[in-house]
Design brief:
Layout: H1 12-27, H2 41-50, H3 56-60, H4 65-74, H5 85-89, H6 92-95, H7 126-134, H8 140-151, H9 159-168, E1 175-176, H10 178-187, H11 194-204, E2 212-213, H12 214-221, H13 230-240, E3 247-248, H14 250-257, H15 260-270, E4 278-279, H16 280-299
Antiparallel strand pairs: 1-2, 3-4
Pfam families: EF-hand_7, EF-hand_8, Pkinase
InterPro entries: CDPK_Ser/Thr_kinases, EF-hand-dom_pair, EF_Hand_1_Ca_BS, EF_hand_dom, Kinase-like_dom_sf, Prot_kinase_dom
GO molecular function: ATP binding; calcium ion binding; protein serine/threonine kinase activity
Length: about 325
């Protein structure tokens, strides 16, 4: 309807847009073109008008049959035959969805006198808090790589992190406020000063919205070893190779990092042959070295800003906690 002005524009245009976004989420590809990212606007519009909705990416991504049926209903070119929002909500795929977020039977406040001994109510582990605290010390490139890996993480590999996020999200807004994160840290038996909390929160809030979204949370809390997997290395490498030339050039790093100093730092670490490019083998070494370095930071954080209990001593009082 946006492209062909002869077709009336209505609410079902938004249903098409939802279909496009859902298709990309499920397949990581555009429904109308395998090379949509290379096309100019006119070229992509042509593909949308004349091409068919691609079924192969759905098959390759093993998309559920009911999800595929919903997609084809939303991506029907004829607005009269296209699903409207109410019909989409009644689709079998969405009807099967249940709210799987863990529910707290009791959500104590930081004023609860028993909070310091109620570690069993803690939604987050000691290791997760340590990663939250050290995330602010990561470089711009390290944060960017973790965010990319988090964005593509399979749900089963981040189940603990997902559950912690949903438990902390007491407002069920889909994001975490500074107060929700502070409450979670406190319920884990830790005290953090407001200045330190602000520093941690600013590092987590990558897009500056004043909220920590799910991907930002995953990036800060996932195990650094996730960066060293073959799948993660390949995914991040192909993402950074924007021009698909088989290597990562400085201008591509600049587009992602937005900082020439960060670009030079990455090249210094990754460009071992001195050609000002990073090929896939160099990038593989870079990512594995990066994972090792962040693992060491996770084990020996420089300055958390608050006390963490020793292993297996969560029942001890705050006065017996030592600062790492």
């Amino acid at each position: 309807e946006v492209i062909d002005k002869s077709i009336p524009y209505g609410c079902k245009c938004d249903c098409w847009s939802l279909g496009v976004m859902l298709y990309i989420i499920l397949t990581d590809e555009h429904p109308c073109s395998p090379d949509a990212h290379k096309l100019d606007t006119a070229g992509l519009f042509g593909k949308i008008l004349t091409g068919r909705i691609r079924s192969r990416p759905l098959q390759e991504a093993d998309v559920d049959d009911d999800a595929a049926e919903l997609l084809f209903g939303l991506l029907e070119k004829n607005p009269d035959a296209r699903l409207d929002a109410q019909a989409a909500l009644r689709s079998p795929w969405l009807c099967r969805v249940q709210d799987s977020r863990p529910k707290l039977l009791h959500s104590p406040s930081s004023s609860d006198p028993d909070i310091k001994s109620s570690h069993h109510l803690s939604p987050i582990s000691q290791g997760l808090i340590r990663r939250l605290a050290t995330f602010r010390h990561y470089s711009k490139f390290e944060r960017a790589v973790l965010t990319l890996v988090a964005h593509r993480s399979e749900d089963t590999t981040v189940a603990e992190l997902r559950d912690a996020f949903h438990t902390l999200d007491v407002s069920q807004s889909g994001s975490l406020s500074k107060s929700e994160i502070k409450e979670g840290i406190f319920r884990c038996g830790h005290v953090v000063e407001d200045a330190e909390l602000t520093e941690i929160f600013s590092a987590l809030d990558a897009d500056g919205t004043g909220k920590v979204h799910y991907t930002e949370w995953l990036a800060a809390t996932m195990q650094p070893s996730a960066l060293a997997t073959d799948k993660a290395i390949k995914q991040v490498y192909h993402y950074l190779d924007i021009d698909q030339t088989g290597h990562i050039a400085p201008h591509e790093l600049q587009r992602v990092l937005g900082c020439s100093d960060s670009v030079q730092s990455v090249l210094k670490l990754g460009d071992t042959d001195g050609d000002s490019l990073i090929d896939e083998s160099e990038f593989r070494v870079l990512m594995r070295n990066l994972a090792k370095r962040l693992d060491q930071m996770d084990l020996h954080p420089r300055r958390l800003g608050f006390h963490l209990p020793e292993a297996n001593s969560l029942n001890s009082s705050l006065s017996s906690m030592h600062q790492l």
